[in-house]
Amino acid sequence: MGEEEGKSNNSLDPMEKKRGGFSASIFIFLLLALDNMGFVANMVSMVLYFLGPMHFNLATAANTLTNFMGTNFLLSLLGGFISDTYLSRYTTCLIFGSVQVVGLSMMTIQAYSKALQPKFCGLDKPSCMEGGIGFYFYVSLYLWALGSGGVKGALPALGGDQFGHKDEAKKLATFFNLFLLSSTLGATIGVTVVVWVSTTKAWYWGFFISTMGSLTGFIVLALGRPFYRLQVPRESPLIRVFQVIVLAIKNRSLSPPGSSAELYEISEKESAFTNEKISHTEQFSFLDKAAILGKDTKAEPWKVCTVTQVEEVKVLTRMLPILLSTIIMNTCLAQLQTFSVQQGNRSMNRKLGHFEVPAPSIPVIPLIFMCILIPLYEYFFVPFARKITGHPAGITQLQRVGIGLVLSAVSMAVAGIVEVKRRNYALAHSPLAPGGISLFWLSFQYAIFGIADMFTLVGLLEFFYREAPAGMKSLSTSFTWLSLSFGYFLSSIFVSIINAVTAKIAPSKLGWLHGIDINQNNVNLFYFFLAILSCLNFANYLYWASWYKYKPEEPETKVQLKEVDKPLVIEHENGSNKVTAEEVSVQTEENKEKVACL
Fold first, then answer.
1. Is 222 within 8 Å of 263 (Cβ atoms)?
2. Greater pLDDT, 349 or 49
3. What is the phi-psi region of residue 95: left when phi exceeds 0, alpha when psi lies from -120 to 50, beta otherwise?
4. Cβ 397 vs Cβ 463: under 8 Å
5. Residue 13 — φ and ψ, nearest 5°?
């Protein structure tokens, strides 16, 4: 009974009732901590690596990092697509994880070997990369991006699959909070220990620790194989989307039926062991024409789509404005990993007693805040809010995202104020003068943004996972990383455009972000620009969040075991659509064959 019931829910492995849950998630949490230790450490310090041994100027170093990060998160779509269509999410993580380890190993070798590092070519050039050295650098950097991005596309959905039943809604919300906590704990070690090793000992030691951490993490993930619930890959989600679009255009001249009941949909019996069914909604009614079955037309792919298939496209369409409304926040995040690191590296007092704090280690302050706040949020705020709202997660995912967007605007405003204070001191004193304002002034912008990230990142991951159709869970959760990707790319565009525009209109004929000396720039104005843009973006988000309609809940299929001499039936909550044991057997055998292919 348990195997058949499990099989009817999201195409999970037949033994799923004995698997999954937090006993399986612990392997995922360990991978997150070990992998994020190196990833975040490099994310906050690599701009210094580009400025130093790689000889980039400030704008090129910032853009190289943001382009790398943007590509990394963009490639999560590839991992999500492959894990939804061809491979299990577990297998996808291991394959892309291997590519990531290769890329990191190549980065380690280049950081170690002087022969693979460019020679200094002067201050007037944006970069000294050329020839074989440049080729090696970009191949290793983007192999790392490919591997890391692919893992990001599959891992959240693999974790979500361990809580795939409707009675596990509260546990799913807890999983995504612990998902962030694991990443945060690993990042805390990364921005302290790994960053200190990289900036004070040698860059290759930092890359080596990152490589070994990732390798160990993927070995741990592989060891958890007997505990996971693994989904059966379905048909390509992109093909299903294209089918709806093509048929909606093809049938555009047809008159819509008088009732949604006249639209084509497979029966409950046919769908019991294949796909979830989504109820019809009125939004984007022009897409409904894809589900009109013409007279004397056989129900075949590319000739008619089911209502569920049309609703899947509607769900994705409704998600797009939410996705686009979070891009500006991630553009703000990019500044904390580029210009804010440079702020801490120039004219700020980095002494903590007798210990000199590396500027890239400042993010440890919001990370520590998050390590404390995430458990408080999960175990105190959520139960309290749940009693008031009745929502399993305390507040809705979109409310959580909205809080994060407000805090990100505040963070940029604070960053601008702190930069005015830092720059005024720097210009009033000699660059060689001791002291300066404390490095911990930067902790305000980092702490506020860290709390914003706690709300928004988890809110988006849970939102995209819950709302996604069953066959698009990985691809949908990749939308979270897609927002990050667009945010980083937009940061590069903003830096280039603002530099070009301000160079034309400024009396000095120099852009806000020119050269390598941040003291001669106007980064504060760039921060204020982002703060104003964030406020406008929040107003836009409020409109779309109010407009969004959550996917309607479907009655869950219940399997009841009758006496041995009576037929097995599957009864739905409305008491209709019964399936005999013979029909169940055929469906179950088909699914077992699919699982055997994993």
1. no
2. 49
3. alpha
4. yes
5. -55, 140
